[in-house]
Design goal:
With about 375 residues, this protein is of the alpha/beta class. The chain is built from twelve helices and 13 strands. The protein has helices at about 10-15, 15-30, 35-50, 60-70, 85-95, 140-150, 200-210, 230-245, 245-260, 290-300, 330-340, 350-360, and strands spanning about 55, 80, 100-105, 125-130, 150-155, 165, 170, 175-180, 195-200, 215, 220, 285, 340. It binds pyridoxal-5'-phosphate. Pyridoxal-5'-phosphate binds near residues 59 and 130.
Length: about 375
């Protein structure tokens, strides 16, 4: 049996008719950018997250860098962020000229809340929390630290649509929550897309202006902005996916729970939940000291896997200028050598899961 790490076609065929009808509606409407689909999606997504406002943007990376731009964070400022993240989190900081200050993760792949305070200097302006793999981070502690030190709090929720900490949805704990709707994300579009959510009316308005060349009224430009608009087709299709997000998330939770119950191999360490948090299982990430041999073994059985991520941002060529070498973040670097995402996608069949479970259980 051939199993790919992800199957976006399955997510499409599940609601094919609804997607096709919506796409045709938008095509026939004659209105393609910043229209009623976008504003309806913004309202519905804000309501879903529990935030007051949502502003649709062109990508998750745009959501991140525009968030820091609107918060006035730039050259000379430091932002604390976990070392084990997708590089876009860090680019959101550095595009503005600010400096990322890396902190090691905890046992659940999230920011280690006990190591944040020791990194705070008089240049620290914000903390960026990444709810990696769909697992909500320990937000009570992060919020407390940000209040105490008067730091801005931004959340990277590109992988955590719907994940909660103590009943509150990720993205709503701080100043701005940043989302991506890249096709493979839990709430995925059929192209690029992103959004911010916030409870701050001013930030929401400034973001609406910024995404459209800095203009509120056509041809009256207040600031030098960007062209970062979510388009009508993507917004319309996202509304369909959003309508089904509870079922989609539930399906992933069931797959994850079965993996956790049935994978039994002392060479393979399974992920565990943060106390008080829920996980929407963007990825199901196991750890294995002999990871590369496990990858080969699964490949031979036609089971595809992905490493999220093989090179931590501080060791990427792009960030050589920060001057951090190998050994700077031992926990992060260890994870890069041992993590492995096994197949996890909406529409995965029970037989496919059994095949993956049996394969991993017989790895020696
Ligand atoms: C996907 C992702 C992003 C970037 O989102 P794009 O829409 O691809 O720009 C940022 N952060 C994390 C953690 C991601 O997984």
């Amino acid at each position: 049996m051939k199993i790919m790490p992800n199957r976006l076609d399955r997510g499409f065929s599940k609601y094919q008719k609804e997607f096709e009808d919506k796409a045709l509606d938008v095509l026939r409407s004659g209105w393609y950018v910043l229209g009623s689909e976008v504003s309806s999606f913004e309202e519905e997504f804000a309501e879903y997250t529990g935030a007051k406002y949502c502003v649709g943007l062109a990508s998750g990376l745009d959501a991140l860098w525009i968030a820091f731009r609107l918060l006035g964070i730039g050259k000379g400022d430091e932002v604390i962020v976990q070392g084990n993240t997708y590089i876009a989190s860090v680019m959101g900081i550095t595009i503005n000229g600010a400096t990322p200050v890396f902190v090691e993760p905890d046992e659940h792949f999230g920011i280690d809340v006990n190591k944040i305070e020791e990194l705070i200097t008089d240049k620290t302006k914000a903390v960026l929390v990444v709810h990696l793999y769909g697992m909500a981070s320990r937000m009570d502690k992060v919020v407390e630290i940000c209040h105490k030190h008067k730091l801005k709090l931004v959340e990277d929720c590109a992988q955590s649509h719907g994940a909660c900490f103590k009943g509150q949805m990720t993205g709503t704990f701080g100043d701005i929550g940043c989302f991506s709707f890249y096709p493979s994300k839990n709430l995925g579009a059929f192209g690029d897309g992103g959004a911010i959510v916030t409870n701050d009316e001013n930030l929401a308005r400034e973001c609406r202006i910024f995404r459209n060349y800095g203009s509120e009224k056509r041809y009256y430009n207040k600031v030098v902005g960007a062209n970062s608009r979510l388009d009508e087709i993507q917004a319309g299709l996202l509304r369909i996916r959003l309508k089904h997000i509870k079922d989609l998330t539930n399906e992933r939770v069931c797959i994850a729970e079965r993996y956790t119950r049935q994978i039994k191999n002392e060479l393979v360490k399974l992920p565990s939940l943060v106390d008080g948090a829920t996980c929407v299982w963007h990825q199901y990430v196991v750890r294995c000291e002999d990871r590369d041999r496990l990858v080969e073994y699964l490949n031979a059985k036609e089971i595809g896997t992905i490493i999220h991520y093989p090179i931590p941002p501080h060791l990427a060529e792009a960030y050589k200028y920060l001057g951090h070498g190998e050994g700077f973040l031992p926990i992060t670097e260890r994870l890069a050598k041992t993590v492995l995402s096994i197949p996890m996608f909406n529409g995965m069949t029970s037989e496919e899961q059994s095949y993956v479970i049996d394969a991993i259980n017989s790895f020696k």
